[in-house]
Model the fold of this input.
Amino acid sequence: MSLLTIETTCDETAAAVIDADGTVRGSAIATQERLHERFTGVVPEIASRAHVERILPVIDAALTQSGMRPSQLTAIAVANTPGLAGSLVVGVVAAKTLAMAWRKPLVSINHLHAHLYACQMSTSHSVYPCIGLIVSGGHTSLYRCEAPLEMSYLGGTIDDAAGEAFDKVAAMLRLGFPGGPAVSRLAASGDPAAYAFPRPMMNDPHFDFSFSGLKTAVRYAIVGPGKQDFDAVVLDDATKANLCASFQAAVVDVLVTKATRAMKRHGLNQLCVGGGVAANPRLREQLSIEQKRKGFRLTIAEHELCTDNAVMGAIAWEKIRRQDFASLDLDIQPGLQRGY
Ligand code: KG4
Ligand code: ZN
Done:
């Protein structure tokens, strides 16, 4: 029994063939990093056009690698929410077309559920019930998770996502795109205490986040308050490293503090962390220090399952087991209401 999963929520075109026991038979991913690099952020129109060009070769590659024929597939699953409208529509149309042509049931995937399911896929013990933290380019949110498909929203960013703040700080320092890996690489040689950046909302009792003010604080540290002219500023490598390390420390402090407080408030002893920013070494390190101090169970998604991929679409098996299929008029839902 094998499932074809399709993922096009943002700027990765991905497909995978996964068995009911989680065995990955085939997986292909076409990243668009180079296409968006000069804009230092994902340009939705470029993303959707690139998905159109890549979706069939990517599905073909995953199927070929798996050695499966379409007739052997149990179902076709696709992430239809949340994400960029033009990107989602390419995956959803491809999945619906193949489901119709190959006469296979269709399954819808919530991309955020899939990000946390990546944690379950990264360990052998059950991660539920848990507090789930999703930190990516588009999301920074906390959930109470009872089961793979049962998540309740506790709070999230009211402005920028953590990953977006990493990307924008990298852009200010001309470190390329995506910014997270570049900032964390440089931060490794910097002093996290060099700049006293704010820890927005860290001590507020709610579970919302805000990173746009922190981004502005970094900007002021680079060019000075009220100034725009990045071109006039030349920074040496040590200063850049200190800025990166101090910024990263501020983001990580907020994430770790709020996630552990959520566990305490909800009487839970497990924390799962997924999404692109979960690849950040300082976040991983600080979480594991906190884990040792407080004795909770921590599951961070494996590196290759942190950023967008189709393998985490294995969550669709949870729906297939419940016979929870989508109809062929499945639509995209780009923006969920806050949290959903
Ligand atoms: O989950 P993802 O691939 O896409 C979204 O669903 O948004 O996350 C991409 C984000 C980008 O903002 C990228 O800069 C960030 O994850 N990221 C990192 C690191 N690696 C990727 N942020 C901080 N540190 C990293 N090592
Ligand atoms: Zn994502």
About this structure: The first helix runs from residue 33 to 36. The pocket of KG4 (ligand 1) is lined by residues 10, 136-138, 163-164, 166-167, 178-181, 184, 275-277, 279-280, 307-308 (CB under 6 Å). The chain has two domains: 2-115+308-339, 126-300. The domain at 126-300 is CATH 3.30.420.40 (Nucleotidyltransferase; domain 5).
